[in-house]
């Protein structure tokens, strides 16, 4: 685990919300129980999108998981055969992730304390897959993270993101329900003003250069304690999948230039 200077695109109050609970990342009945519960759903959705695009699974894909926390998703992608780098700005989170990886003997998994923007400058276009889950609503400038995701991807690569919609229903479900009624996450975990509508995330992604190819909503029934995905409802939690377009070949660019000049 390497250290790096933090950028201005970090809210240390937000980081502190998660690092103070670092010892609970791998307690499946602890503060992060809901992340463990939804992880199979999001993992399978991610692998399905990767398979749909590449025609093959996560096996041997190079993946960077931005805002990896204690490594729940990063670890599961490594179990599926990907070579995964998890990055986060919470050093206590990364320590918990690294300890768990060592205990389980996971060789295809590494962690770094480095901002996404910095990594994108160091390793541009080095990854087949970029994931950024449950993170965009916790930073001052989510568009800069989206741009870093684009810059980290190889041409033709797949990016998956998740966040929370901003509307009265999401306030009721994600804050009142999840934090105060059901205690699915700690009180104060989310700030409604930082929630991001699908249209806003779509716009950020298009400005970065992405093409969206899928979107789905994540839902929870507190009575049956059942989680499921629905493409027809993205009112609260949702995930989007994007592709970085393939770069034009030199031959294509040459043909286009000849065409431009008659």
TrEMBL record:
InterPro entries: SAM-dependent_MTases_sf (IPR029063), UbiG_MeTrfase (IPR010233). It is an enzyme of class 2 (transferase). GO terms for molecular function: 2-polyprenyl-6-hydroxyphenol methylase activity; 3-demethylubiquinol 3-O-methyltransferase activity; polyprenyldihydroxybenzoate methyltransferase activity. CDD domains: AdoMet_MTases. The keyword Methyltransferase applies. It catalyses: a 3-demethylubiquinol + S-adenosyl-L-methionine = a ubiquinol + S-adenosyl-L-homocysteine + H(+); a 3-(all-trans-polyprenyl)benzene-1,2-diol + S-adenosyl-L-methionine = a 2-methoxy-6-(all-trans-polyprenyl)phenol + S-adenosyl-L-homocysteine + H(+). S-adenosyl-L-methionine binds at residues 42, 67, 88, 133. GO terms for biological process: methylation. Pathway: Cofactor biosynthesis; ubiquinone biosynthesis. Its EC number is 2.1.1.222, 2.1.1.64. It comes from the Bacteria. NCBIfam families: UbiG. O-methyltransferase that catalyzes the 2 O-methylation steps in the ubiquinone biosynthetic pathway. Belongs to the methyltransferase superfamily. UbiG/COQ3 family. This is Ubiquinone biosynthesis O-methyltransferase.
């Amino acid at each position: 685990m390497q250290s790096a200077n933090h950028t201005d695109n970090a809210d240390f109050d937000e980081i502190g919300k998660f690092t103070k609970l670092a010892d609970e990342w791998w307690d499946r009945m602890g503060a992060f129980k809901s992340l463990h519960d939804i992880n199979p759903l999001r993992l399978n959705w991610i692998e399905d999108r990767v398979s749909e695009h590449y025609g093959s699974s996560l096996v041997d894909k190079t993946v960077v998981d931005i805002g990896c926390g204690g490594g729940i998703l990063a670890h599961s992608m490594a179990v599926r055969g990907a070579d995964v780098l998890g990055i986060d700005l919470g050093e206590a989170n990364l320590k918990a992730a690294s300890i768990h990886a060592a205990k389980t003997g996971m060789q295809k998994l590494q962690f770094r304390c480095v901002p996404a923007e910095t990594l994108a400058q160091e390793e541009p276009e080095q990854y087949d897959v970029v994931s950024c889950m449950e993170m965009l609503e916790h930073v001052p400038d989510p568009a800069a993270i989206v741009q870093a995701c684009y810059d980290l991807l190889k041409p033709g690569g797949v990016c998956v993101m998740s966040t929370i919609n901003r509307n009265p229903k999401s306030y009721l479900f994600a804050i009142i329900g999840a934090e105060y009624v059901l205690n699915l996450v700690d009180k104060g975990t989310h700030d409604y003003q930082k929630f991001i509508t699908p249209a806003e995330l779509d716009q950020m992604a298009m400005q970065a250069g992405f093409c969206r190819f899928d979107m789905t909503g994540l839902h929870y029934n507190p009575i049956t304690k059942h989680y499921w995905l629905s493409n027809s409802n993205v009112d609260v939690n949702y995930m989007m999948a994007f592709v970085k377009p393939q770069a034009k070949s030199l031959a294509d660019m040459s043909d286009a230039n000849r065409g431009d000049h008659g």
